[in-house]
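Reopening: Pimeloyl-ACP methyl ester carboxylesterase still failing for me.
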Amino acid sequence: MSDVTKPEPAFAELEALYAATPLAAIDRDRLRQWRPESSLWGRLKPLIARRAGARLCWTEVAGHRINYWDSGASDKPVLVLIHGFGSSKENWSFLSELMHREFRILAPDLPGFGNSTFRVDSDYRVETQAERMAEWLKQLGVASAFIAGSSMGGAIAASLAAHHPAMVNGLCLMNAAGVPGTRISMLEAGVLAGNNYLVANRPAEAQRVFQICFHSRKRLLGAVFGLLMGTEMAHRAPLNHAIFSDLVYSLSAVNASLPQVKSPTFVLWGDSDQVLDVSCVDAFLAAIPHAKAMVLPETGHLPMVEKPKDTATVLRAFFNAQHSIVHTENL
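Support: Ran it again with your exact input. Result attached.
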């Protein structure tokens, strides 16, 4: 995999190009036969939750059982953490461990991911997932919250802010999907050639996933994650291929909704992101003019995993400032 310098196609063009690849052909019969299986990573999840200071909870939303973490005191400001494609709430474990004493942290497994329900007849487009998140928060009695989303989760967070502005006190878009950059990323080049580097079809391919997601300085961490998660990632490959298609076909709608985002917004990126090029930062700032931004050096696609302390510092400063404003306005 080498550096890619070609311009990224606009989303309408991207959809057409994607539709012509083998990745767009979804085997629905195979999806109907899919069932969860026990794995090493699955057995580790309760231990990860305990270390993150999180309680394991669940509720039903629109025919999906949503599993989520609830950590921190109920009287603290609510911070919702929305994970990205092919991932789960466990992606936030390092960050939750650092921040749950200052915030009540809610971190869901998005429908279709982690321990939440996947339904072969359901829609997993970004805007649909955002509506499920809005309903989930209503069920929990959360009228408004700070929202941080990573990658696909960032697109979902942005859609939530655009269509439910009263629910979002502050928004952090972390290496988020939803805008075309000026350079095509390594992932995008692979997808257009018919190879999705974010899906591990065999356990050994999990190493490749983390190679593209992490900065080169985090190769050892990526190797460890690959060993721990490889079996589960390979088992979930059919689901991930299907959901990725829904993601691709919903990016145009997300992009069109960004000017509706009025919540205070912070864009956080890694300078070495090979999944979504760092040039996307300027595109987000153009679409959401009031947004602020920071690019972390020697960081890839997952700042909260690669540099959790730096990420926590940024989020803490931004959300605490917004909390002070909201608190003052409510006096």
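The chain has 14 helices and eight strands. If you still see a failure, please send the error message rather than a screenshot.
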